[in-house]
């Protein structure tokens, strides 16, 4: 099983209060049915809990502008206690033998320090282990 990094996004206030925009380039990893503009999918977090998200693309305009709808995204934000400057990282696991997507994963992370000039990010579920909650 191969894990493929889809994207990392540092959260802004609008991502916290509204919707999470996806890079258009990752749409190929989400098989939205022909003629449709929404797709539900599940992503497992750092503790292997499944989160149901709804990915939507707009019907008009020059590009699809994919977003996770607020209705599915907001619960994740609230449960994880996300704030501006935190980040989310999305991956997909691909079965190399038959080139099938096996599952998506999502990580909610917070920057805890800068070490030797590099940002150190920790999954929010693990912050208590570092005494950072």
From TrEMBL:
Q: Does the keyword Ubl conjugation apply?
A: no
Sorted keywords for this record are: DNA-binding, Nucleus, Transcription, Transcription regulation
Q: Where in the cell is it found?
A: Nucleus
Hey, what's the signal peptide range on this chain?
none
Q: What is its main location?
A: nucleus
Q: Which GO terms of the molecular function aspect are on file?
A: DNA binding
Q: Mind telling me which GO cellular component terms the entry cites?
A: nucleus
List the CDD domains hit by this protein, alphabetically: B3_DNA
Superkingdom field: Eukaryota
Membrane spanning stretches:
none
The keyword Plastid belongs to this UniProt entry's keyword annotation: no
Annotated protein name in UniProt: TF-B3 domain-containing protein
